[in-house]
Amino acid sequence: MKKTIVVLTGAGVSAESGIATFRGSGGLWNGYSIEDVATPQGWHANPEMVLEFYNERRKDAAKAEPNAAHRALAKLEKAYDVQVITQNVDDLHERGGSTNVLHLHGILRQVRSTTHPNLVYDIGDKAIKLGDTCEKGGQLRPHIVWFGEAVPMIERAVRIASKADIFIVIGTSLVVYPAASLIHYVPKFAPKYLVDPNIGGVDGVSNLTIFQKKATEGVTELVDKLLGEV
Ligand code: OAD
Predict the structure, then answer these.
(1) I need a labelling partner for 42 at 20 to 30 A (CA). Which of 30, 90, 143, 222 fits?
(2) Catalytic residue flag (residue 143)
């Protein structure tokens, strides 16, 4: 039977595809404060700006290409059952070839109704503006988890993490909860790997091997090692 590898990724895995990380630029995200563009309060204060911000991010993500780290993770599926849990709202894992990807914080390609949250639409790389509505007339918003909102996928992610034979963390500062807590649900005996040029958030984690490297280099190396072990 194939072993299960669970991979938790953050903004760092897409950095070398040209997508800015969140905490890498003085607390600003592409020049905006997170409070203004990633909270329900920001949305209520200025929905037009929030829509514009995500329209730009959606365009950037569509233009970006998966990098060697995304592609290496897809290669792991040859020998392992691989489940990717990503905090990222781009679709570079899918376009890099990974087939099981859970988006903890939502995805830019999708929007949903503000009045009927179950109405979710795939809009690809298109823009939305004020006045664009669901079929029941409710304004559309990004299908993204903002600060202060529930993370509906977290229970599924916890179940997945708790069954990992091997757990890999790539390119996340591990400061945003509940995502950052997932590593603590992984069985103690399971080998864990961290790939990130800056190490943090892993105090007390057992059986941990650190690749203090950029994702393209560190993930490629780690995937070669893991494929060599089967
Ligand atoms: P952060 O911006 O907090 O952290 C990015 C991580 O990537 C840091 O640990 C960097 O050291 C690392 N990094 C930078 N370049 C890298 C590279 N080339 N290769 C590998 N690692 C690299 O991003 P996240 O941890 O993903 O939430 O942030 C978590 C959440 O906070 C996001 O999902 C978002 C944000 O606010 C929502 O949108 C709800």
Answers:
(1) 90
(2) no
- Range 27-44 average pLDDT: 89
Tell me the average pLDDT across 169-185: 94
Residue 84 belongs to what H/E stretch?
strand 81-86
Token pair for residue 182? 């997932």
Q: How far, in Å, are 142, 149, 171 from residue 39 at the CA level?
A: 12, 8, 23
Report the separation in Å between the CA atom of 122 and the middle of ligand 1, taken as the mean of its atom positions: 25
Q: What are phi and psi of 5, to 5 degrees?
A: -110, 125
Treating both helix axes as pointing N-terminal to C-terminal, what angle do 68-75 and 215-228 enclose, rounded to 10 degrees? 20
- List for the chain the helix, strand, coil content (%; round to 5): 35, 20, 45
* Domain locations along the chain: 1-19+66-105+151-230, 22-63+110-144
Q: In the structure, what pLDDT confidence band is assigned to residue 25 with cuts at 50, 70 and 90?
A: low
Choosing among 3.30.930.10, 3.30.2060.10, 3.30.1600.10, 3.40.50.720, the CATH entry for 22-63+110-144 is 3.30.1600.10
Mean per-residue pLDDT over the chain, rounded? 96
Q: Provide the token pair at 79.
A: 């020998």
The reply to whether 22-63+110-144 shares the fold of 1-19+66-105+151-230 is no
Distance in Å, CA 1 to ligand 1 centroid: 33
Task: Report, at the CATH architecture level, how domain 1-19+66-105+151-230 is classified.
Answer: 3-Layer(aba) Sandwich (3.40)
pTM recorded for the entire structure? 0.96
